[in-house]
Amino acid sequence: MEFIENVDPTNISRRGFLRGAGISLALPWLESLPLRATESGKRASAQNAANAPVRFACLFFSNGVEPEHWWAQGNGKTMRLGPGLRPMQPHTEEMLFLRGLFNEQARAHKSAHLGRIPNLLSGGWVSTDQNDIRCGRTMDQVLASHTGQHTALKSLVLGIEPTELRLEDGLSMLYGSCISWASETKPATKEIYPARVFDLLVGDTQNRGIDRSVLDHVLADAKALGGQLAPTDRHKLDEYMESIRDIETRISLAGAERRLEGWRPTLTEPNFSRPGDALPQDIPTHMKLMLDLIVLAFQMDKTRIATCMLNNDLSQMNFGFLEGVRGSLHLDLTHNGRDPELEAMYLKTNQYHVEQFAYLVQRLKEIDEGGRSLLDNSLLLFCSNLFDGDKHEADHMPMLLAGRGGGSLEPGRVLDYLDRNDVERRACSLYLSLMDRMGVHLNEFGDSRQRLAGL
Question: Is the model more confident about 192 or about 39?
């Protein structure tokens, strides 16, 4: 974003401007929120739950599962889960076990890893040209464009490991670091620092100086540059102008309520302290913080869309903090050649990932929104881009879905599509169905033109 910044050193930089604006908008919006409590101080009525918005979150883990231990049988309380899913046993009434869904473009791609992760939520083709980073726009970002008009942030895009730019198998590791794509050529920026996420949600007290007058000044500055630029730089300017328009919209939202009638968030201020500036150095703390921030964002209605990558693809994460796991990085455990000792450690990492999802489910289940829980008003997807990580198996993906989507989804079931024809088991059919439940109705998405049967 150095284009505008370098035109005149006396002007505020575009980089500082965008960063400041993103944070400064949070406080006025927060202060304008009415309290959830009624005049009598009693809890909000069931009508509050009926009108609450539906939230969507996707929790991703890399390199698949240990197939022998990834299964579910039965329904509701009596549902039986394989060892890999054991942490979800208390929540079987809140989850759907989805078997057999896949992405055609991922299965057909020659890259066993990087051609099968960035299209997880889009079903798009991954470019093999190093000079043309390209993939499909993901369903979370389609949803964000719709729900973002009501919230301070369009979406949260979170991760634990940093975005990588090195090459792997002739492709950019950018593909392995991003599951959320704002457009075919632009991944959504992933944040891995909990403190920065907190500041996005509640405001940074040291950076609240951007207001309407600054916006007007910079907008006029940008327009004046239009006739002086080469075509390539004019494209950069167009992108900048789009960002300005988005910020203007958020300033307007800061002074006006556009809520569903009768509904108010259950929190108007954060209920835990700001994390430290440093990146957490232990994985359990880091993951829990990111999940807590998703809960906070949903509870304060700062955004209704979130994704979180627990690992990058080809992850170098070390799970030595787990009892019985030693000496090997995550990628080595998943590509184990059926070595019994490595398989046992692989199972433990699967269970740990499922434990994170179970934690998010439990946190949301505990938050009452006036007769329904925040979980009842959410759709939570837990998934990986491969099934058997050792075989790079992409003909179906491990997937769980939790929550009730505001009453539009019946959990506590096993839905098995593995023996159906390819058209009937597209993951993008699931995404069309989920988008429907959040008010976004498309005729087609990715490689599908139909909704997922039985959902």
Answer: 192
Averaged pLDDT, 422-448: 97
Question: Which sequence spans correspond to the domains of the chain?
Answer: 1-31+199-267, 54-192+279-436
Residue 306: which H helix or E strand, with range? strand 305-309
Task: Given CATH 3.40.720, say whether it is the number of domain 54-192+279-436.
Answer: yes
If you average pLDDT over residues 286-296, what whole number do you get? 97
Q: Is the pTM of this model over 0.90?
A: no
Query: What is the spatial distance between Cα 238 and Cα 230, in angstroms, rounded to a whole number?
Result: 12
| Cα–Cα distance for residue pair 326/336, rounded to 1 Å | 14
- Residue that the structure tokens 């929190």 belong to: 267
For residue 226, the model assigns a pLDDT of 62
Q: Helix, strand or coil for residue 60? A: strand
Helices (H), 276-414: 283-299, 330-334, 340-365
**Per-residue tokens: 214:** 């600054």
Query: φ, ψ for residue 14 (rounded to 5)?
Result: -60, -40
What would the two tokens of residue 421 be? 């024809």
* DSSP line for 193-260: -HHHHHHHHH--TT-----HHHHHHHHHHHHHHGGG--HHHHHHHHHHHHHHHHHHHHHHHHTS--PP
Pick the range with the lowest mean pLDDT from 191-205, 328-342, 356-370.
328-342
Strands (E), 61-94: 72-73, 80-81
Q: Within 13 Å of residue 144, how many CA atoms lie on the same side as its CB?
A: 24
Q: Give me the pLDDT at residue 217, please.
A: 56
Q: What is the DSSP letter of 96?
A: E
Cα–Cα distance between 202 and 226 in angstroms, integer? 35
What tokens does 21 get?
Answer: 């604006």
* CA 200, chain centre distance (Å): 15
CA distance 53 to 40: 25
The answer to whether 396 and 425 are in contact (CB under 8 A) is yes
Torsion angle in degrees (nearest 10) through CA of 7, 9, 12, 18: 50
